[in-house]
UniProtKB/TrEMBL annotation:
Record text on cofactor binding: Binds 1 Mg(2+) or Mn(2+) ion per subunit.
Gene Ontology MF annotations: 3-isopropylmalate dehydrogenase activity; magnesium ion binding; NAD binding
Principal localisation: cytoplasm
Family per similarity comment: Belongs to the isocitrate and isopropylmalate dehydrogenases family. LeuB type 1 subfamily.
Binding of NAD(+), residues: 76-89, 281-293
Protein name in UniProt: 3-isopropylmalate dehydrogenase
Species: Thermanaerothrix daxensis
Binding site for Mg(2+): D223, D247, D251
Gene Ontology cellular component annotations, sorted alphabetically: cytosol
Pfam families: Iso_dh (PF00180)
Amino acid sequence: MKANIVLLPGDGIGPEVVSAAVRVLEAIGQRFGHTFKFTEHLIGGCAIDQTGNPLPEATLEACRTADAVLLGAVGGPKWDDPRASVRPEQGLLGLRRGLGVFANLRPVRVHPALIEASPLKPDRLQGVDLIVVRELTGGLYFGQPKKREWVNGQYHAVDTLEYSETEIERIVDLAFRLACQRRKKVSSVDKANVLESSRLWREVTNRVAQRYPDILLEHVLVDTAAMRLISAPHSFDVVVTENMFGDILTDEAAVLVGSMGMLPSASLNGKHGGLYEPIHGSAPDIAGQGIANPIGTILSAAMLLRYSLGLEQEARAIERAVDRAIEEGCRTRDLGGSLSTTAMTDAVIERLG
C-alpha cells in the first residue's frame, strides 16, 4: 500500500512525539511492504509565528487531500494571552471543522503492568477497557453566538451550547456500532436534569437504541459519570457524550492508566481520511528535553493504520509491541522510569518483529 500522511507536529513536545510515531510507521512499512509518504505542515503557535494564522490554508488543503493526518499538540505559554484574538487552539478547532471529523474515539485500557503507576487502588483497575466516543464538532466549543459584551459597567460573556438531532444521531449510532464489536453496553453521558440540549440528546439516544435491541443502554449524568470513572471504571464499555463532557472525562481517565502520555485518539468523519493525536497537550515544561512519553502518539499511529488505511494486522503489531515493551519494564519518566523519548521508541520498534 501507498499512503500520503500529513504530519502536524505543532508546539511543545509535539515535534518529539510525532517524530517517534513516524519512526514506528516507517518500521511497519518496511516490515509489511507499505510506502508511507510524509509531508509536514504548520499548525498552532508555530503557525501563528510564521504566518499569523493558526491554521494556514495550505495546511488545511493538504489535510483534506491526505489519506490521514497525524497531529502532535498545539499551544504554550507564549500564546496564552486570553485577550489575544488569534490563539493556537483555533487552529485545532478549525482543522476539526474543516475535515468534518465529528467522532473522536478515545480508548482507555489499563495495562496490568502499569496498575501500580495509577494512584487508584489496584482492585479498581482490574479489567478496565473502555472507549469514549466524543462528539467533536458541536456543543460549547463551536456554538454561536460566542461573544463578550460590556453591559451596565461590566463584561458579560456568552458561549452557546447547541446540538441538532442529526449531530446527536450520527455520533450515538457510531457508539452503538462499536458496542456491537465489544461488550454490548453503551453509557450515554449527559446533563438532562438541567440542559435542554441534553434532554434532546437523551431522546435521540433512546430512538437510536431501538435499532440495537441486543445492546444495553444506560443514561448517566455527567457528574455521576465522573465519579464512577474513578470508583468503578470497569462498569463502562462504550461511553458516548458531547464535546466538552468528553474532553473533560477523557483527561480524568488518564489517571486510570497512570499518565496522560499513554492515551491515543482518532477523529473520524465516516468518509475519507482521519485525524490522529495523543490526548495530551504540548507540555511546554518538558519540551526539548527528550523525556516526553511517545506511547500515546505511537498508539494514535496504530489507530491511523486501522481506521484510515484498513491495516488491522499492522495496527495490532504496534499495539502488541507497545504491550511487550511495557510488560518488560520499559518506562519513561512520567511512569516512574528513566527512558528517553528516543529510547522508548527504540524499545517499541525492537519488539515489532
